[in-house]
Amino acid sequence: MKAGAVRSGLAIFALALTVCPLARAGEHVTLRNGFELNCVRSETVGDKVRLYLAGDTPAASNANYLEIARDAIVRVETVADAPRTAVKAAAKAGIKTGIRTGIRTGAEATAAAPTRAEIHEMLAHSGEAHHIDTDLLASVMKAESGGEVRAVSRAGAQGLMQLMPKTASEMGVEDAFRAEENIAGGTAYLDELLTRYRDNIALALAAYNAGPAAVDRYHGVPPYRETQAYVARVIREFNRRKQAALVAQAR
Question: Are residues 129 and 242 both part of a single domain?
């Protein structure tokens, strides 16, 4: 933790949208939390549903999937897929295509998926560099993206720490879908906010979510339901992690 204080960050969880290059049609999935995503196909496995993402080969696609609880899904619809060349061109130009943006396919998607252990190591490294508690960063990441490297919000925030393109650029992040860069950028940004608000964790989290201008305008956490819920969620997760660590040490 920086200067002995509890420190962390904030944003909206969203799943990355992937357009399938292997088939003419895919599936559009709507979740109960309001988010949507495209996948190649879905498969029910017990009380879970596997949403298979894109890959350059059938084998790669079969190994690349998200697993979601069945009751978290509202509906699954068959949708026409966009031509692969058009998708690549639009992604390169930063243009929205289909239902959402944030297209990552094939080798790029596979390369951007480090293990949980590797992500934890990245969080620890960035936390040490900025004197921010690793559990705090992990709590922010969980609230931001749920640990999904290719997460993209409706507002355009990207990656594990959900960085907006402008913020990512200011923090020196060239590829927001590369976990190490994204975490480093998100940690640096959180560090700036904590410094700006004199290590007031609630204000720093609120600014990460709603922007410093909103916090300054209201002289505190803005009266936005989303922002207030986010601040509470991150702090609650941070406390849960610390309590679990204490229990583990006592055994």
Answer: yes
- pLDDT tens-digit map of 61-112: 455 667 778 888 888 887 654 333 333 333 333 322 222 223 343 344 445 4
Among the candidates 41, 76, 103, a domain finishes at 103
Question: Are residues 206 and 126 part of one domain?
Answer: yes
Domain range holding 142? 2-13+114-250
Residues sharing a CB contact under 8 Å with residue 128, sequence separation 6 or more, in sequence order: none
Q: How far apart are CA 16 and CA 149, in angstroms?
A: 8
Contacts of 33 (CB under 8 A, 6+ apart): 13, 72
Catalytic one of 27, 144, 148, 237: 144
Determine whether 180 is an active site residue: no
Q: Taking a C-beta distance cutoff of 8 angstroms, is the pair 182, 174 a contact?
A: no
Same domain as 223, residue 179? yes
Bin 208: left if φ > 0, else alpha if -120 < ψ < 50, else beta.
Answer: alpha
- Report in angstroms the alpha-carbon separations of 139 from 94, 205, 233: 29, 11, 9
> What CA–CA distance (Å, rounded) separates 177 from 217?
32
CATH number of the domain at 217, please: 1.10.530.10
One-letter identity of residue 159: G
- My answer on whether 57 and 170 are in the same domain is no
pLDDT score of 102: 35
